[in-house]
Amino acid sequence: MREGEMWTPPRQRLSVGYEVLPGDYKSLVQKLFRLRQVRRKTSEGSKSDIDVQTTEKQVKRVSAKDSMRFGDTIYLPITVQAMPTEKAECLCSEGEIKFLHDLELYKDSAIIVINKPPGMPVQGGIGIKRSLDELAGTYLRHDFSEPPRLVHRLDRDSSGILVLGRTQLSATVLHSVFREKTFGASNIDLKSEKRFLQRKYWALVIGSPRRPQGLISAPLGKVVMDDGRSERITVVENVSTTPSQHAITEYRVLDSSIHGLTWLELSPLTGRKHQIRVHCAEVLGTPIVGDYKYGWQTHKKWNQILSSNLEEKVEAGNKNSHPFGLDLESGSIADKQPNLHLHCKKMVLPDVSSALKQAHISSDYDFGDIKSLKFEAPLPAHMQRSWDILRS
Q1: Does residue 278 carry a pLDDT above 90?
Q2: CA angle centred on 177, ends 173 and 178, rounded to 5°
Q3: What pLDDT was estimated at residue 52?
């Protein structure tokens, strides 16, 4: 392990402490947390509960949600020293700028809603040259001095509705709307609660659930592999011995096919990482088409059926080049290696712009009297083609 410069946060929690860093370094530290490249050494006499049973000066990987105490030391990779003092300007062609503007579904004084294309990363990371977060900060400001800010995320290979806050205040309020919660209530209590945020995803899965609709309630935990270089989310069997977060997803069958594929509508009531993908693969036993991380074994068998039964129905399309190197033409079930078929199609959320105009609100504001905004994003080309194939 290589250790670089040390940084001691001036506040108690890491997620708040790095807000004092310059903008470029703040983004970098956030990225390092996601990649599990940040480590902590607990100081003498200030151990957190997690570290009580560990060696006093042991250096451990740490996440942005872990608690800190004054005196703890944070280690960043030595590569941070090589970070340029001035960030290169993100330059796009006229065609790429038009492409970004065409993604917008809605815009007001508080939010921008876009239809994220599959294959475009939401945030930066190793090997990612341009992300939506960076591009929006440069080209989707419009007449605002502040850059729009992410308030939730979508996986790189998924698509659909993505919301950005146009100001620091609106982003803070939206963060509270999208914030993940660990529900202690029963499923019945949870369903009876009024939800100001509603999300409906469409997914094409291999197989069919036993029941046409239902509620999945299964805790999810993280398994770190390859010495911290990768991770996988899985359903936790014993919550008393394994760290986990409760995850709840509603589902219903939209349509079934004689080819053994099923269209599902899924509504996550919590916001865990890879929640829908894991619930489909491990709980329903129906992994999402194109999800090779959680359904590789199923895909190996299913591909043999696909090539003989479906591929002949579809004419080869023209694969036009798209901005940012995206291939938006291929990836349907007619292709040998289909892309992920998961799309955030519908969303309902509070009209934050109206709320901000009416009163000064905080992150715990009650949106009960505020009207809602409803959005719907068309399917990406590969999912629309799969839909047409199975309906023909």
Answers
A1: yes
A2: 115
A3: 44
